Amino acid sequence: MMKLVGRAHRFSPNDDINTDYIISGRYKFRIDDMNELAKHVMEDIAPDFAANVRPGDIVVAGRNFGCGSSREQAPRALKAAGVSAVLAESYARIFYRSAFNVGLPLVECETGWIRNGEIVSVDLDEGVVSSQERDMRVSAAKVPKAMQLLLEDGGLAPHLKKHAGFARELTEG
Amino acid sequence: MGKTIAEKVLADHSGTDCHAGDIVIAAVDLCMSQDGTSTMMIRELEDLGFSHPMTRKGMAMVIDHSAPCPSLEVAKVHGLIRSFARMRAIPLFDVGDGVCHQVIPEAGLVAPGDLVVGADSHTCTYGALNACATGLGSTDVAAAAFTGKLWLKVPMTQSIVVEGGFARNVGPKDLALHVTGILGADGSTYRSVEYSGAAIESMGIDGRMTLANMSVEMGAKFCPFEFDETTSVWLRSKGVDVDDGVLSDDDADVESSLDVDVSDLVPKVARPHRVDDVCDASDLAGIRVDQVFIGTCTNGRSSDLRAAASILKGRHVKKGVRLIVAPASRAVLADAIENGVASELVRSGAVIVAPGCGPCVGTHAGIPSDGETVLSTANRNFKGRMGNSNDVSIFLASPETAAASAVKGEITDPREVR
User: Fold this and answer.
1) pLDDT for B193 beyond 60
2) Per the count of CB atoms within 10 A, which of A125, A146, B285, B312 is most buried?
């Protein structure tokens, strides 16, 4: 399906990065242009991130990434900022669905070894995450079939158009 | 093998004999959105060629997160929502009606056994009425409105058995914080949480809503309570005439369980900036507060305002402390006016702001200043949550702890108030 290469960005805190931290309520209620929102992504925990992030960069975190509010502005603003994927040890469920719905791939893998600023590559088909700078690689959890299907279709809305509703394959795991 | 409430509701809505782990395409009864999530939902629906909701009971939209409108930018969003709702004949709860998770149940839109999806994470609150309700992103809710269905993974169920009786000035919020402190911010991820036991059987719907509401702070998908006489009486008062609901089977496959006896539970507080960083209120005695907020979909209901007023009556908020109260709905405010609770709150020094989400989400009506400390009855204390991330500390507690702390000007165990 695809191979992504990008610079890793790590944050403090590492675990439980909630959607308020991804995009604050200060902005999300009044700005509906995702490119504008992208200028404030991660602002409350990493004020320099929005200015430094480059297209293709990869967000790296620990457990329970995307917990809290259901705001879909969170995955959309990350995507608009150029983030190509998120690598985390686990995800909160609303964010998990929404990210694939809007075409932002999430990868579940061990992330403790990834250094801030390191160039990493992600092979979504093979389920392998590796460093481009060191001899480090880990296998990632397989992206569930339903999520793969949504990614291939370009998100949930294109999926519904293509299949005139939900494809039966979504229920196959 | 028997089934849990989540398995029964999803089996019923998908026409399958599903169990935890299966993925089903389920018919959705109701979908909802609020003013912070509707814009994206409307755009997705228009892109899909939407004409009317295919969900069994249609949809509902609520303007509550920034209500009344605080800015020109938000006015544009509200205008878009109103025109969309008018054109599609979708019920809209507008400024002053209250918080979505209070007005939708009050309007009789949720019934036992329903499958409800909402573009707001605290949609799980409706679990108090024996429904399976969950928060989703705007695109998922648009998909449900457009097709009448949604694909869902059937969740494992986690059982929490609560025995005993609450001590004076200790209640459901303290229990919710206690459980969140034990299980953690991802302790129920992808799970359906089922509370049961004597303390739940004797608990009113307001308290059950507080527990169901907070379940998403542990990552839960659903938090359905068993149907009982309390559910039935509450629903009848809202015009929903039902005699039975969905019960969990004794031999259902329940993943893990937690047993709590609330008899020795004490007032609890979540410290900044984590909902699961929970300690006893008495451990924090002496921490001064600048603002106290009573309200939200967690604790803005009639019983919450009554509990706060019972502590504030005849006392006054400490000089220099701001006490902001946001009733959860127009009905809650009217109730507070009619039974004297509103005047007790106001005379004690509180300001009552419009029914709605108020300062919880940092849009208006109580953004703290730099360096301030806030004690709130809300469900989230993330850095920056109330609109200012500049050294603002938010503590979460019950309405009783909030009221006692407002009087003393510092975090106070409400059992100390005689």
Assistant:
1) yes
2) B312
